[in-house]
């Protein structure tokens, strides 16, 4: 089957590196596998401390960040990353009240996806954030 120009345009920029920060292995494992199938480079951290180590060692393009983590919260990590002009951030969390979404976006997240989520929708949001990042320079 031939790939269309539209399909090629939807593909992430070459080797975009995504860091999944999620303490639930039932979520992070399948999500990492899905994203690798979509040609992303993927790293996984189960808490903010491990995420900080990975961020210090790797060029990360986008962080998929759970809010409720053991130790430092995802919101605190989001605030820190944004203060350091870090990578793009999509909060992926069970907290789905409008006040939670507003707080996450005001702290610097580029998008907010409530759990449970559809993988195709999350992929579309990842592509959108990476596109905006590329256009921003």
Overview of the structural elements:
By secondary structure, the protein is of the alpha/beta class. The chain is 48% helix and 18% strand. A 5-stranded parallel beta sheet has the order 2-1-3-4-5, sandwiched between helices. Helix 2 links the parallel strand 1 and strand 2 (41-45). Mean pLDDT is 90; it is low at 1-13.
Task: Write down the secondary-structure element order.
Answer: HEHEHEHEHEH
Helix content: 40-55%
Number of strands: 5
Q: How is the main sheet built?
A: 5 strands, parallel
Shape annotation: globular
Strand sequence of the main sheet, in spatial order?
A: 2-1-3-4-5
Counting DSSP H or I runs of 4 or more residues, the number of helices is: 6
Task: Compute the CA-based radius of gyration.
Answer: 14 Å
Structural class estimated from helices and strands: alpha/beta
Estimate the mean pLDDT confidence: 90
Q: Tell me what portion of residues adopts beta-strand conformation.
A: 15-25%
Runs in which pLDDT lies below 50 for 5 or more consecutive residues are 1-13
Spatial separation of the terminal alpha carbons = 34 Å
How is this fold's topology laid out?
Layout: H1 5-10, E1 17-21, H2 25-37, E2 41-45, H3 48-57, E3 62-65, H4 74-83, E4 88-93, H5 98-106, E5 111-114, H6 119-136
Parallel strand pairs: 1-2, 1-3, 3-4, 4-5
């Amino acid at each position: 089957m031939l790939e269309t120009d539209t399909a090629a345009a939807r593909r992430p920029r070459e080797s975009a590196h995504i860091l999944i920060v999620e303490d639930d292995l039932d979520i992070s494992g399948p999500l990492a596998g899905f994203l690798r199938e979509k040609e992303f480079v993927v790293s996984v951290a189960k808490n903010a401390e491990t995420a900080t180590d990975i961020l210090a060692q790797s060029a990360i393009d986008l962080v998929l960040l759970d809010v409720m983590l053991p130790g430092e919260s995802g919101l605190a990590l989001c605030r820190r990353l944004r203060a350091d002009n870090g990578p793009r951030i999509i909060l992926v969390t069970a907290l789905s009240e409008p006040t939670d979404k507003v707080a996450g976006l005001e702290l610097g997240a580029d998008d907010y996806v409530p759990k449970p989520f559809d993988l195709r929708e999350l992929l579309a949001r990842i592509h959108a954030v990476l596109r905006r990042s590329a256009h921003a320079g």
